Amino acid sequence: MPKIKTHKATVKRFKRTGKGKLMARKAGQDHFNARESGNTTRQKRLDIQVTGALVKTIKSLTPYN
C-alpha cells in the first residue's frame, strides 16, 4: 500500500495543536485595515479553531501532520 501524499497548501494554512485541534488564521488581514478599529485589528491577530465538516476534510488532506 503506497503512502498518501500530503496536500502542502493545507499544511501551510492550518496547524494542529497538541490536543489535536485545528487552528487557522483569521481572514481579512491583508489590506484595508486602516479603517478598522483598534479592537478589530487586535482580534484579527488571534487564530481561530476550525470546526464542523471542514475538520474531517483537513485531516484527510494532512495524514502525517
Automatic annotation (TrEMBL):
<dbReference type="GO" id="GO:0003735">
    <property type="term" value="F:structural constituent of ribosome"/>
</dbReference>
<dbReference type="GO" id="GO:0006412">
    <property type="term" value="P:translation"/>
</dbReference>
<dbReference type="InterPro" id="IPR021137">
    <property type="entry name" value="Ribosomal_bL35-like"/>
</dbReference>
<keyword id="KW-0687">Ribonucleoprotein</keyword>
<comment type="similarity">
    <text>Belongs to the bacterial ribosomal protein bL35 family.</text>
</comment>
<dbReference type="Pfam" id="PF01632">
    <property type="entry name" value="Ribosomal_L35p"/>
</dbReference>
<dbReference type="GO" id="GO:0015934">
    <property type="term" value="C:large ribosomal subunit"/>
</dbReference>
<feature type="region of interest" description="Disordered">
    <location>
        <begin position="21"/>
        <end position="41"/>
    </location>
</feature>
<dbReference type="InterPro" id="IPR037229">
    <property type="entry name" value="Ribosomal_bL35_sf"/>
</dbReference>
<dbReference type="InterPro" id="IPR001706">
    <property type="entry name" value="Ribosomal_bL35"/>
</dbReference>
<keyword id="KW-0689">Ribosomal protein</keyword>
<protein>
    <recommendedName>
        <fullName>Large ribosomal subunit protein bL35</fullName>
    </recommendedName>
</protein>
